[in-house]
Design goal:
Length: 681
Amino acid sequence: MATEEAIAAGLIDWVNSLAVAPPVYTVEDLSNGHVIWKVLHQIDRFSFSGKLPEDPDIDQWINKWTNLKHIYDALSIFLLEDCGQRLQGHRPDLKAIAQSSSLPDIISLLKLLVVAAINCSERIEFLKQMQLLTESTQEVLMQTVQEAGDEDSQDESTPSDHDQQVQPAPDNLTSPRHSNDLDSVLASEERLARVVADNQRIAHEKRELQKQLEEFHLRYDKLQERFDQAQDEVKDTSDRLAAVLAGRGDLTNRPLDTKHDTLIASLEHRAVEAESELDDLRKAAEVLRLKADKAQKLQDDYDEIKIDRDRLARKANAAEKYRQKLEASQDLEKDNATLRNKINDLQTQLKQSDFARATSSDLEREVDEYRRLLPSIEQERHELNEMKKRLELDYHALEARYLDQAEQLSRQNQNVEDLQSRLRDYEDGIDPSDNDRRPPSPVHRDLERDEADFLESEARLTAALLDKDALPIPSDSPSTTTVSADADEPALPTLNLPAESDTISEEELKAIMSAMRSQAAAGSASDRESALSAQRKLVLAIERQRTKNKLLAEHIQKMNIMVQELRQPKNKPQDGPSSKQDDSPPPPPPKDDPVPPTVQATNDPVPHYEVDDLTQQNQMLSRELRLMASAWFEQNQRLASMSSAGSSARGRGGVGFGNGTEPRGFLNRQRRKIELISLGR
């Protein structure tokens, strides 16, 4: 920040650039007010007309003080009335300037000159002239202008402390008292204008009287000198007169006494006139002193009135602002009603949001429940997809088997027709020996193949599910059964059972048992127990079916023997007794199987419906065997999945062994049917 010396140097440079007086080098040259008055005269010659009240050449601080007060009053009036600028901040001490040339006060006074220059009617010329100065001077002038602008804006935006204390309430702005205050403000402004005019007139008269007083002082000094000379002459004349009267005077001087007397008389007359004039001057000086006191009193009153005017102007500005605020707040009730409606709407929205939050909490709980159920649903969907794939595979496999069985059935029907034709030929007495020399019947081949496959699957399943001591595989069953006829007769179809090499070995049995046990150990205890019980039931059902198949095979063999014996009477009639001895009824079938028709006589032909029954039983046994194998595969898959989804299956009430709940869905019902078929229910 610039120092006071730098600011003073910049302001002095600006004053010298105006060229209104000889160059100024120090602030002491500005203390008499002569240069400042010339600068003001250049700014506005009408507002600052005339001369200073005191002679600036006299080096007396009282005269300087008088000139500075005159300059400050005229400058204040110009800034307030013509420029609209209010004097704020530090007021320069004019007495300190006159006595000791105070630097801060001179700087303050010069700043007022700069403000007056940039706000006058010819400010454009001053601004152009300021641009030609040095940068330091321009910075000082710019800082001065900014300070003046800041003070003015601060004064307009911030009321004084006194105004803040006495400002009325907004509700009382339209009261009669407030209107009276405005009238008093206007009256005070008119009074202030009159006082300013009177003050200017009195100041002008004061200046004229001061000039007259100075002239009177000069005349008084001259007359005083002349009076002193006259007194000296009178004294000399008196002395001489006394000497003459005493007779000591020279007689030669008597002609001159007349002249002296005349001169003395004239001087006395002049002295009397001078004394009277001096008395008049004293009276005039006293009158002027009284007028000066009165003028000073008027100046003080003017200052007080100016202060009151500024205060009233600030009050008027504040009142105007409050009036504008009152006009702006006339629609306050409407705004309040609108705000009340908005508040009611917001309260309604708040209630709705609270209700929505409570509802959302319930929905969030439901979503959490659904989210917890989602893994189980995904698992079930995965299981359903797997079941669908397995069912599709089973469907394709069953379809292929169905086609094979249909083809096989057609072949069996063809064989049955052949047998029926042979029986008819036999009844007609035609020798069917030539027709007997053909390959074994496809029915017998299918029975042998089904029997071998069934025995192999039975052995593997029994070894995998039970210990080797629980359900041992029967070893007394014949491996092969061959029915031979005489050497001359054609060989009948034979039933080939699986040999010892086709069964499961001891090492394979142990490996299968260990694998099944580890698989069963993966589930819980209840799951393992239910699975083992179901598997035992399945093994028992398989054992029963095995027994049935064995009895059926024996029955078929006996039927073949019976057919062979029926052929012998025509081929070898001499062997009748032996054939009669061998003609024994076949053993009855098991209780679980349907009773086959009895052969009434060895000579009767075999009815064709018996062959059809055997074919149907064979088909039923094959289908039941496939269903049991599929159920066994499904049971193993379910045991493998119980270790990972046992708890979720129990929680959903899934279908399993020992569960009496009604299954849900088509796939679960199909599983239930397969389980019932596998358990032999």
